[in-house]
Amino acid sequence: GFFLHLRMKHLPCYKKKKHYRKTTIQRAPRGTSIEKRPICILQRKIFGHWEMDCVVGCSLPTLLVLSERKTRKEIIIRIPDKTTKSVVHALNTLEKNYGKRFSKIFRSITVDNGVEFSDFKGLEKSIYKGKRTNLYYCHPYSSCERGSNERINRDIRRLIPKGSDLSVYSDEQIQAVENWVNAYPREIFGFAT
Questions:
Q1: pLDDT at 48
Q2: Measured between alpha carbons, how far is 133 from 104 in angstroms, rounded to an integer?
Q3: Do residues 189 and 111 lie in contact, with contact meaning Cβ atoms separated by under 8 Å?
Q4: pLDDT of residue 22 exceeding 90
Q5: Residues 6+ apart with CB under 8 A from 167
Q6: Lateral strand order in the sheet of 108-111
Q7: Nearest to 139 by CA among 113, 163, 166, 161
Q8: pLDDT confidence of 188, banded at 50, 70, 90?
Q9: Can you tell me the distance from the alpha carbon of 137 to that of 12, in angstroms, rounded to the nearest whole number?
Q10: Given a cut of 70, is residue 26 above it in pLDDT?
Q11: What is the pLDDT, as a whole number, of residue 20?
Q12: Which long-range contacts (CB under 8 A, 24 or more apart) does 70-74 make?
């Protein structure tokens, strides 16, 4: 009886309930579906299975974020824009850095159905001839299928808030964000990094 005029909308964490319409799949995934992904990837017992997404700001530069499923290791690469060409170029650069070890370190990559990942053949094709890695596409509107990546993107947003101008961040600052995320103690590892 003390708070007669207090309602749910006055509480700081109150959010109105959203009404979602049922979505329909407009097109099939461009490449191999996540349903064809081996069970060993789901169990997180083997190192080398990654999830990939883009973190965007209010300006053109974008961050390409790769998250390893077992160790939660994070790789953040600045790309000039959110296009397929930029993503393929970033993976080519990553493959040049790792050399022939790339296919052992990056056994598979799971991505969403964003436009930036639409070049299935370009993403899978190695610069050294042959296949670079296995690429799997999530179901549309199912970000939970890349849960580790979405969770770590939330950590990135603690240091680079949503709507930030990514062009003002230097490469050293982006590297510092990557180092902070990788050095963050995680409960799942007994508070080890």
A1: 93
A2: 9
A3: no
A4: no
A5: 57, 59, 60, 61
A6: 32-33, 134-137, 108-111, 49-56, 62-68, 74-79
A7: 113
A8: confident
A9: 37
A10: no
A11: 59
A12: 70/44, 70/45, 70/46, 71/47, 72/148, 72/152, 72/186, 72/188, 72/189, 73/182, 74/152, 74/178, 74/181, 74/182
Residues 6+ apart with CB under 8 A from 168: none
- Give the Å distances, CA to CA, from 61 to 77, 86, 167: 10, 10, 6
Would you state the pLDDT for residue 135?
Answer: 93
pLDDT tens profile 111-160: 998 889 988 899 999 998 889 999 999 988 888 888 889 999 999 999 99
10 Å CB burial of residue 118 (0-12, 13-18, 19+) is: middle
d(CA 36, CA 33): 6
Q: Note every long-range contact of 116-122, with CB atoms under 8 Å and residues 24 or more positions apart, other chains counting.
A: 116/54, 116/82, 116/83, 116/84, 116/86, 116/87, 117/30, 117/52, 117/84, 117/87, 118/30, 118/84, 119/84, 119/85, 119/87, 119/88, 120/30, 120/31, 122/84, 122/88
CA distances from 64 to 5, 15, 16, 61 (A): 47, 30, 32, 10
Residue 10 pLDDT = 72
Q: What is the mean pLDDT of the chain?
A: 87
**31 compared with 89, residue with greater pLDDT:** 89
